[in-house]
Amino acid sequence: MSQPTSFFNGVPLIDLSKPDSKNLIVKACEEFGFFKVINHDVPMEFISKLESEAIKFFSSPLSEKLKAGPADPFGYGNKQIGQNGDFGWVEHILVSTNSEFNYHKFASILGVNPENIRAAVNDYVSAVKKMSCEILEMLADGLKIHPKNVFSKLLMDEKSDSVFRLNHYPPCREIEEFSDNNTNNLIGFGEHTDPQIISVLRSNNTSGLQILLKDGHWISVPPDEHSFFVNVGDSLQVMTNGRFKSVKHRVLTNSVKSRLSMIYFGGPPLSEKIAPLPSLMEGEDSSLYKEFTWFEYKNSAYKTRLADNRLILFEKIAAS
């Protein structure tokens, strides 16, 4: 059995309806790279509708679900995470958020209507994307950056390379194969940072998410099915010249309850140049990172293992 979990109660809580929230978001991104938002405008019915479509899909027999795979990278995947040997106790659906994504992969699965999944994903993603853009504009405002759409325009761009992922962690009783030998915890999704600008996560009421604090301690985030959790991604760390930290996180599975999570990864267009914003540097030489395109970074990131420091290749080496 996995260890009993004690929850961390210090996750910054941002009420999006309050006028001082922009400064609290900046502080949370500097200290944790992670925060929870309440009073968002994402309709509960969009969340429930998508969750029920996801449960319908994940409840299908494995032989049926495999018809929607393999994930290339889009579609259904089971246990394998990426192309470099990472495994976890998880099954997932990954879709592109642009309108060309082909939902017909889901057409041959009994009891699953691809049009229902498409509609549920589109409604949910458009509402979460709108909230993400509001958060990014509050961040720019809090950092006193002009124009304030400097981050949000990358998600709003019609060529934005954003993706959406549904993760399902079944109850896990096969402890040996998927355990971390030091703690006997069951690894659902191994430690990693997200390469995009921002990630917005919502999960059901089952625990499992952990984030790594600056002092090197892993802490368990209390589950909350009514709120959203927001992560700073690697690209935002670079654009803020390291002022915001991309948070390392992982998921431990539960031996009794299943966990369902939905994550919107807000990414820039593939050709977008990612570099520290001049207004956040004290001069050209103070940049901590080399400029790169999102295409270059994404390619590099997907060739690494989950736990690797993906940004290290793009850091400027300080002169000794």
Instruction: Give the SSE order as H and E letters.
Output: EHEHHEEHHEHEEEEEEHEEEEH
Strand order of the largest sheet: 1-2-11-8-13-5-4-3
Q: Total number of β-strand segments?
A: 15
Q: Determine the N-to-C terminus distance.
A: 49 Å
Largest sheet: 8 strands, mixed
- The gyration radius over C-alpha positions equals 19 Å
Overall average pLDDT: 87
Could you tell me the strand content as a percent range?
A: 15-25%
- The global form is globular
Summed up, the helix count is: 8
Model description:
This protein is α+β, with helices and mostly antiparallel strands and 320 residues long. It contains eight helices and 15 strands. The chain has an eight-stranded mixed sheet. Strands 6-7-12-9-10 form a five-stranded antiparallel sheet. A two-stranded antiparallel ribbon has the order 14-15. It is globular and about 60 Å long. 38% of the residues are buried.
Summarize the structure.
With 320 residues, the protein is α+β, with helices and mostly antiparallel strands. It has helices at 21-31, 44-58, 62-65, 114-142, 152-156, 175-178, 234-239, 294-301, and strands spanning 13-15, 34-38, 75-81, 86-96, 163-169, 179-180, 185-192, 198-203, 209-212, 218-220, 228-232, 249-252, 259-266, 273-274, 292-293.
Task: Describe the secondary-structure layout.
Layout: E1 13-15, H1 21-31, E2 34-38, H2 44-58, H3 62-65, E3 75-81, E4 86-96, H4 114-142, H5 152-156, E5 163-169, H6 175-178, E6 179-180, E7 185-192, E8 198-203, E9 209-212, E10 218-220, E11 228-232, H7 234-239, E12 249-252, E13 259-266, E14 273-274, E15 292-293, H8 294-301
Parallel strand pairs: 1-2
Antiparallel strand pairs: 2-11, 3-4, 4-5, 5-13, 6-7, 7-12, 8-11, 8-13, 9-10, 9-12, 14-15
